[in-house]
Each structure stands twice: as structure tokens, then as C-alpha cells.
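Input chain follows. Return C-alpha cells only.
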Amino acid sequence: MSQEHVNLAPVQLGPIAVPTPVILSPMAGVTNWPFRVLCEEYGPDGLYVAEMVTARALVARNPKAFRLCRFAPSERVRSLQLYGVDPVIMERATRMVVDGGMADHIDLNFGCPVPKVTRRGGGSALPWKLDLFSELLRRVVAVCQPAGIPVTAKIRVGLDADHTTFLEAGRIAQEEGCAAVALHARTTAEYYGGHSDWERIGQLTQELSIPVFGNGDIWSAEDAEEMVRQTGCAGVEIGRGCQGRPWLFRDIANAFAGSSERVEPTLGQVGQIVARHARMLVEFYDGDEQMAVHDIRKHVAWYLKGFPVGGFTRRAFMECESLEDLGAQIALLPQDEPYPESVAAKPRGRVRYAKKVHLPQGWLDSRQTTHEEREALFGDDPMDASY
């Protein structure tokens, strides 16, 4: 791998200056404000995007949806991701966000590959329907532009190797007024398995005049540099690579500043990060300590990855019910245990493949939606308004 230093130029998204376009990708159940605060404290002046908020749930004034829309006072740019299939509902949810002064930047989710989303025509399935994709973007941008709120779109390469959509989706997003596009360089069928195809990021970068952010398989600062070097993308978006490693953003900031310095916390230092993360989660859950400690469990599994702590210790963390329990387990950790180099630049989380792409019946028959398809897609679905 080349050691040549890579420069990352500032990006302007409407009125928002992004000095170092390194982005925390929205991840369901992960990127609530406590985790975003940790990442932003380590990282550069990038964008740290909230986890996906369902438009229908927001319009229904679901309390959990509003919780996901909260930002910490320290967050420089309030970036909110919205998900929906019905352009009218998306427009109404966007109007709530804009009129309520709830965000500075709105990202739209067209990248989620999860079957319960794609079988409703949402996430990465939606760009296949060109009319629906265009209308949804147009309505959201029309609400946001007068308020000076930039809109970005997160997309995938396509449904599968035979049904790619990213070039058309990128062009449409640009035509409809999006300020940037982020491309996760996998298809829906690839889910989170295999290797992302960075060549597609380079293709989209060449195709568009708006910034393209590359996403997929950035596990280290060197990966981030290499993606920019190979593709010419305007910035990088970090998803699973930072799970249990919010300090990855410091490493990436250092790399793009020409520094080889990397953060390598001892297990004791990691334990203190876990404790602080948990305390912030208590605040996020309005004082519900048990809910916060249950939430931190998945993060603990990531934080401990590679450390030689054994199954007994890991199970003990999974049985914690309070901050006191958590603190007791953290105190038992070998505090001086060095950071495990063996996993420093390795994949995080589970590598999952989709057996098949779940789509609405007849979805692939046409690139346009029929009246009947729209009626079926936009009908009331209680799942859309709940969490």
C-alpha cells in the first residue's frame, strides 16, 4: 500500500462548512447522541449522523422517534437521517424537522438492505423506482432549501449485480438538489458480506459534480486514505469500523493531517470510555439506568474485541443491570493490558449475507410505480410508526 500522504479538501454543503469530510455513518441502535459525542470528541470537524428516524413514526409523534432526534449541546452540526417510502409522509416529517428547528442537515436513507425495509420498497430497494425516488427527493429538498438545510442521500450500488442503480440514483439526486451523495459500495444482495467495490465509488465520483462520500470496509486510517487515493471521493463515511472504537476518528484525522500517530488505549482506558458512554446513555434514556446498561452491552462486546479477557468476563458484562454492576466489572479488568494490534485494522461486527433480496411483489417488472403499487406501499403499516 502506498505511503504517499493524501489530502482531503474541505466540503461545503449549502451553508454548512465541513472542514474535514469524514462522516460517522448512521447506524440503527448505535449512533444515538452518546456515541456521536464520543466520536466527535476524537474526530475532525466532520459530520456525525444520527441513526435512522422513520418518517411515519415522526409524523405519528412517537416518543422514541423524538428521542432519536435529540442532539447534545456539543454537537457542531445536527445531522439527522430520515427514512420513508411515501413522498407525502416524508415531506410532512421534513416539515416537522424544519419548522421545529430540529436539525441543520438531513440525510435520506436509500441504503438500508434489511429485509423488513426493502420488502416495503424502502431503503436500498427504492432507487429502482425512478419516479418514486425523484418525487421523494424533490419534496424533501423543496422543504429544506428555503431554510438553508442541505439534503444528502445515502445509496447502495443496486439491488444485485444485475440490477444496479447507483449511477442513475446519483444523477437524480444531483438534479433534484442534493448537496452530496454517499455510496456504500455493496449491493443489497451483498448485505455486509464480502468486500465493497471501491471502483464504483470512483465511477460515481467521475459522474457527478456534487461531492461523493465513499463508504464500505474502512477499518483503519490507512483504509480511509487508500479509499480517497483510489477513488478520488470527496470524503469517507465510517460505519462498522468505529463500533467499539470511537477513537478511529482521531486516527483518521491524524492520517489526513499527515501524522502517523494512532490511538492505542489500554484496557483500563477503554473501560473508562465504556463507563462514560454508559452514563451518557442513562441521560439519553431519561434516567432509565437499566435500559442504558442493556444498551451498552452490545458496545461492550465491540470495545473488548481482541482483548484477552475470556468468556467469563464477557458474560459478566452481559449480566449487568446497573451502573454499579458495570463499574464493578470495569474495575476487575487488567488495567494495563495493551491495545490488541491483532484486531486494530480488522472488520468489526458480524459479517452477514442476505440469502435473497426481499422486494414487494412485481417490484422488478418496471422502473416506474403503478397506482396499485403506490396504494400498497403507502397504506398504513403499524410497524412504520413504531420502534
